[in-house]
Design goal:
There is one protein chain. The protein is of the alpha/beta class. The protein has helices at 39-46, 83-95, 119-126, 144-151, 171-182, 230-248, 250-257, 272-281, 288-297, 337-348, 366-374, and strands at 21-27, 50-56, 69-70, 80-81, 106-116, 130-134, 157-161, 215-216, 219-220, 262-266, 299-305, 308-318, 321-325, 328-329, 356-360, 378-380, 383-387. The longest helix is centred in the middle third of the chain and has 19 residues, at 230-248. The structure holds S-adenosylmethionine (SAM). S-adenosylmethionine (SAM) binds next to β5.
């Protein structure tokens, strides 16, 4: 009854091999899934690593017009996918492996109201033995289908979103999700090492990539990459990842840099009264007006735990120098760990072109001076200075 993609993939009727990741996709546009026969996924299918089976939802209708949709109860624009064809299609998918309760696919339903699809979810799904996708069209699928899948078929159902926008159907989401998870299935990517430093693998974006020729249209490859100095290359790449993440996706950086219980975010106007109080408590009083001015000329990072403001650091790029105000902490904090974290967060905002970081704090306490030294700063010219890698 299914409609397998053309090509060498196993057909709908072949028994599943336990080690193979089976992926069933139900759609009213089976042809939309044809790209799953190309490139690495196509090869993984012909190599027997992934078994993709595409089913036409209309094959599970019983009227002359193969109807799958109807008008919404309660009124409103658009059409809703009827439950019965979906129930029959899902029963067929589940029935492929007989009635054993353990043999059940995990059902993924693409939808803009779902949990966001991430690399972490791709890893999770790549470890599943069997996945099924239900591609909605029109305004979506009758809500009772989700209940039926869970309660009557015993499936774990996850509504998954590609992002905060609306596309016309779930098929494009399935293409993206299957691409992302299939390349994590052992054996699909020849060189597994290439997965290690990719964007999102550890919460950071990837470093810039270069290939031959070395000189191209007046542009050169960064010298460090030609140096053969593996430690320097690794250091440069790590810094590039941090800087790129800070520049393009600061939301990722907070999570990867600040620790699980401390939330580090950029201050906004609404934070200023609290920040003013913190600065007084930390022994660095200022005025509301000056804080307000600072918001436009610099960035202030705030560290909170359970909502409480614990610390702040102000950062301002001038030319090739990133100027940091001394981290301000609430006085009851034990030790200087948070100061070190704030220094690290500030450093991560150093985009390429920054040659040095300077902390404007000549009269640091002994504890704070040790923190600066441990973070790689040296006292010079009345400031704590940290030079960026010579290759940057
Ligand atoms: C036009 S959309 C329906 C949108 C729905 N009425 C809503 O407002 O949430 C039709 C189908 O496209 C798919 N779709 C749309 N946006 C999506 C997204 N961001 N992520 C995953 N699937 C999406 C879903 O399968 C959905 O059922």
């Amino acid at each position: 009854m299914g409609s397998p993609l053309p090509g060498p993939a196993p057909s709908d009727t072949m028994p599943a091999m336990p080690a193979v990741l089976q992926i069933d996709v139900v759609s009213i546009f089976p042809a939309y899934l044809a790209p799953l026969d190309l490139s690495l996924i196509g090869k993984a299918r012909s190599d027997g690593l992934i078994d993709v089976r595409v089913h036409d939802l209309r094959d599970f209708t019983h009227d002359r017009h193969r109807t799958v949709d109807d008008t919404p109860y309660g009124g409103g624009a658009g059409m809703v996918m009827q439950p019965e064809p979906w129930a029959r299609a899902l029963e067929h998918v589940v029935g492929q492996r007989g009635s054993a309760a353990s043999a059940r696919p995990r059902l993924l339903v693409p939808g803009p109201g779902g949990v966001p699809f991430t690399q972490a979810m791709a890893r999770e799904l790549a470890a599943e033995p069997w996945l099924a996708f239900a591609c909605g069209r029109y305004e979506g699928i009758d809500e009772r289908v989700y209940e039926f899948a869970q309660e009557d078929l015993g499936l774990e159902v996850t509504v998954v979103s590609l992002g905060d926008y609306v596309v016309n159907g779930g098929e494009v989401a399935v293409l993206a999700i299957v691409e992302a998870l299939a390349r994590l299935v052992p054996g699909v990517i020849g060189n597994a090492a290439s997965l290690v430093e990719e964007s999102h693998q550890d919460g950071l974006l990837e470093y810039p990539l270069y290939t031959k020729p070395r000189h191209w249209r007046g542009r050169v490859v960064p010298e460090v990459l030609l140096s053969g100095d593996h430690a320097a290359i690794a250091d440069w790449r790590h810094r590039q990842r941090l800087a790129r993440t800070a520049d393009r996706r600061p939301d990722l950086l907070h999570a990867s840099s600040a620790g699980a219980d401390v939330d580090v975010r950029v201050a906004t106007a609404g934070d200023l009264p609290e920040l003013l109080t913190l600065l007084y408590a930390a022994g660095t009083p200022t005025t509301m007006e000056s804080l307000r001015e600072g918001l436009s000329s610099s960035t202030t990072w705030l560290a909170r735990r359970a909502g409480r403001l614990l610390g702040a650091i102000r950062v301002e790029a001038r030319g090739d120098t990133l100027w940091l105000a001394a981290p301000a902490l609430v006085p009851d904090l034990d030790g200087d760990d948070l100061a070190r974290r704030l220094l690290d967060v500030a450093q991560q905002t150093a985009v390429s072109g920054i040659r040095q970081l300077v902390v404007d704090s000549p009269r640091a306490s002994a504890v704070r001076a040790r923190t600066y030294r441990q973070a790689g700063y040296r006292l010079g010219g009345g400031h704590w200075v940290k030079r960026c890698s010579r290759h940057e």
